[in-house]
Design a protein that fits this description.
The chain is mainly β. 10% of the residues lie in helices and 48% in strands. A 6-stranded antiparallel beta sheet has the order 3-2-1-4-5-6. Strand 2 and strand 3 form a beta hairpin. The radius of gyration is 12 Å and the shape is globular. 18% of the residues are buried.
């Protein structure tokens, strides 16, 4: 699913808790009716751009390709922010 909108807030979380795997959870606005309001940038995608953090994307526009996983979470396959960075799943 293709999404476009604004990142209202973002937080780095360990998933699963107690592990060393960090994910970036984004809460969104302006994505349209019936679309997810929260998406997750997985650990592997975060590794491709170590400078990416929660504070740097908050308030920025974005465009993302997301898929729903078996647990019901919307996981990012590729995302670009208004500052021009584009991250893609290396697989």
């Amino acid at each position: 699913m293709q999404l476009r909108g604004i990142v209202m807030s973002a937080v780095l979380d360990e998933n699963p808790p107690g592990s060393d795997r960090i994910e970036l959870t984004l809460w969104l606005q302006g994505v349209g009716p019936g679309k997810p309001r929260r998406i997750v940038v997985p650990y592997d995608l975060l590794l491709s751009d170590p400078s990416l953090d929660a504070e740097s994307v908050q308030g920025h526009g974005f465009e993302a390709e997301v898929e729903q996983d078996t647990g019901g979470r919307w996981v990012v396959a590729a995302i670009g922010f208004a500052d021009g960075r584009v991250l893609r799943d290396p697989g």
